[in-house]
Structure formats: structure tokens, C-alpha cells
Amino acid sequence: MKRLLLSLSLVFCALPALAAGPSSLARGHNPIAIGMFLLFVASTLVITRWAASKNNSVADHYAAGGKITAFQNGWAIAGDYMSAASLLGISALVFTSGYDGLIYSIGFLASWPVILFLIAEPLRNLGKFTLADVVSYRLQQRPIRAFAASSSVVIVLLYLVSQMVGAGKLVELLFGLNYTLAVVSVGLLMVVYVFFGGMLATTWIQIIKAVLLLAGAAFMALMVLAHFGFSLNALFAQAIHAHPKHADIMSPGGLVSDPVSAVSLGLALIFGTAGLPHILMRFFTVGDVKAARKSILYATGIVGAGYALIIVIGFGTIALVATDPQYHTASGAVIGGANMVAIHLAHAVGGNVFLGFICAVAFSTILAVVAGLTLAGSSAISHDLYANVLRRCKVTDREEMRVARVTTLVLGVLAVMLGIAFEKQNIAFIVSLTFSIAASSNFPVLLLSIYWRGLTTRGAVMGGMLGLMTAVTLTLLSPTVWVQVLGHAHALYPYEYPALFSMVAAFVGIVVFSITDNSARAARERALFDTQLVDCELGIARRG
Prior knowledge:
Elements: H1 2-26, H2 31-52, H3 58-63, H4 70-81, H5 84-97, H6 102-126, H7 131-135, H8 141-175, H9 179-227, H10 232-242, H11 259-272, H12 277-280, H13 289-323, H14 328-336, H15 341-390, H16 397-421, H17 428-451, H18 457-476, H19 479-483, H20 499-515, H21 520-538
């Protein structure tokens, strides 16, 4: 069965090349890019085949048996975190908005100290495979796992939508392929990686992707700096001269127009990362707390270097538009589709070969992220909902593995359907909603379950749901959706991002519903806090 499905995957992934054909190449499609793209796909399938031979238990499938080293995990975390939104989205934001494009990169980077100092150690000690393992450590298993799993699945599906649309558009651009077929191709690859290879295959795909992304971004940034004598002052001065807004691109206010939205966006980016299930799962792949902490240090350095390079790429594209005629064609293409800044700059500085490399890197970026998301979603359903809620831990490893793989197939189908359905929609608000939900539901419950003695099951579930619903409701009522998507004249919620209010609602709800819970069960849960502290300090986690 493994050979059959992997063979079918190879054939299916060759369909874009066949579909491109001579007529497609005649329209200007890049055969070098297509060849590199298919080479990467073939390589990842070989990795998956190797990982499948070692994917024999639940621990292997969810956490690679805890055998990933700190250095490897640091690269994998960086690969999981730096999605297509990083390479394509942030460079495009810098290209169009200048200074304000840095909000995203700084917000993303600032999230890592929060994870390192507040979450990494207790998460690794108290958990096994998922976020729900930690928050249910001293709380009632069934309701808290049901909430944590449901919130995680919502986050995973929303994040998958943006990644699938990005992947579909990239394959459509590269091959001239029908968008629907492009999304189906990505969905099939995603399922193969997780279904057979589990966390081990996902980890190595993320590592390879991170190395390729950093190498490609470094080459582009160096080529841009070389054009300006490796002088950042000269680069920024030319960018100011070339941009229609001139010096205004170096001032804040062009992207986020009011302080409340700016604070909300910052809170979502910083604290949302600490609630993303596919990121938190990575801490269970290493052997101990020391390795978990070192993983974060490695990841912070790698992500920081990547974002610094992407910023140079964004400003460099602005500057090169006006200084060298050879870049005008690329700049015209960029103006028509700002999200492809990095792709067109790659062609300008490195020709067809480097364009092919960056296209393969961009696609590998998306594949690595969707594989991690799918694994996080399937583990939430199979481990938390099925094994611990429905079956009350009375389940064998083999049965749980079977459910995890069936769930992977279901999530793959859902991701493809949602990717097709949202092709024409504004994806920016979906990404912001994803981080806002993570910051308003998962993060408050996780933080207080670790550090607050007074937390009870009722408080965690009710407060977490309040934060989730507030984030969704305010996003729907915001100008981004209520006016731009739904066509109403005025937004009922005047700000673009909800995290400032939804996070407050979550924390207040958790505290209020917890302190008003006078049940005997609540008293036992508070008493277990001391046991949790001891177990966390000793690195002893309750398993099962």
C-alpha cells in the first residue's frame, strides 16, 4: 500500500508538468523552475518513504519518538514558522508600505522570548503530544480536552485555508495549471507526508525547507546589497527616492491607521504564536527540557536572520525599480501582484535558474507548514477527542494510529475544499483571525493552567470559549470583513484587529468563572496545583 500510494503521488505531482506542456512553455513558463519544483517533490517523497519505515507507534507519529535533537528541532521550528506569508507576504508589505511592513516581522520574532521564558519548560514537562495534555494535567479531562481540541482544529483549518490558497496560486503561476487541480495536488502531497511519515517526515521537510529558504533569501539580499556597494544607507536612500510615498515609507501609520489596531495586531502576533498547536507540538519531539530551551534559541536566531534578509529584499526591490532598467520588467510584474515581490526579484537578480530555485523554496515552504498543521489537527482529533474524550483512554496504539490516519485524510479533503472555496476571498483577514483566536483562546488557558492556582475546568472552558467567540465576532464586524468583504457602508466594530479586546475577554472570563466556582471538583483542581508544580520541576509528566 505504501509503495502504491507513493507511486501514485509521484505520478500525480508530474501532472502539472504534463499539463504545462509545450503550449504552456511557449507562453513563457520556466522549464528550469518546473524541473526544480519536481525535484523537490521527489526528494520529499523519498524522505517520507524513509520516515514511514520508522513510524511504528503513536509516539513516533505525533512526536518522532522524542528523538529529534535541539539543533534539528530549532531548524524545524523555524521551517514550521516561516511560512509563505514570511517570504512573500512580508517582503510585499515592505515593498508597498515600507516601515510598517516591519510590524509583522518584529511581532513574529518577539513571540519567541515569550515561549522561551513562559511556556517551553512546563510545556515539555507536563505534556505528551498536544496542547490539551498540558491544560488537562490537573483539570477535568473530557471538557478541557474537548475545548482545547476544538479550538486547535479551528485554528488549523483557518491557517490551512491561507496556505492552500497561496500554494494553489503559486503552482498556477508556475505551471499555468488550473487552480483547482493545483490545490488538489498540494492536498495530496500534504496527506502523503503526514499519513505515512508522521512527525519524522514533517520535521525533515521543515528542516530542508528552512535551510533552502535562508540560503535563497541570503543570496537575494546579498545581490541587492552588492548593487548598492553593500551600503544600507545608500539602499534606503534610493528606496525613499523611488517610492511614490518617498520619506513617508520610513514612518509608521501607512499600514495600521490607529493605535488600537496596532496594539491588537501586535498582541495577536506575539501571543498568538504561543497558542498555535503546530508550533507547540514541536516541543514534544525533543528528549528533555534543556533541548526544548535550546531549540527556541536556535529557532530565534534562524527566524531573526530570515526576517532581516526579507526586509532587505523588500526595500531592495523598491530601490532597484528606479536605478536599473533591467529591473523594470520585474517591477512591473510586482506592481501587478505585490505578493510576488520575492519571486520576481529572484528572476531579476539570478535569472531563470534562481527563479526556479525560489519557486521550489516557496512551494516547499507551504508544504512544510501545511504538513505541520495537518499533523496538529489530526492529533487533536485522534489523541484528544477520540482517545481521551470518547474512549476515555481505553484505546490501543494501533487503534489511535488508525484514527489519526483517517483524520489526516479527512483534513486533507477539507483543506482542498476550503482552498477552492476561498480562492477569491481576502486571505489577509483569515491569517489575522487565526493568530487572534490562538492569542484569545489557547494562550490564556495554557498560561493560566501553568501559573495560576485558582484555575478551574469551568473557568478554562467558559473563558476560552468567550475569547474565541469574541475574536471571531469582532473580526466579522471589522472594516476588513463587514465593509470590504460583505459590502456594508460602515463597520460595526471600528478597528481592524480584535486581539486587544478578545484577549481581555478571555482572561476576565477565565478568572471570573474560576473564582465563582465553589464546587468540590474545583477545590480538588486547585489543590492539584502544588502537585503540578512539583511534577513540572522534576520533569515528571502524567502520561495517557
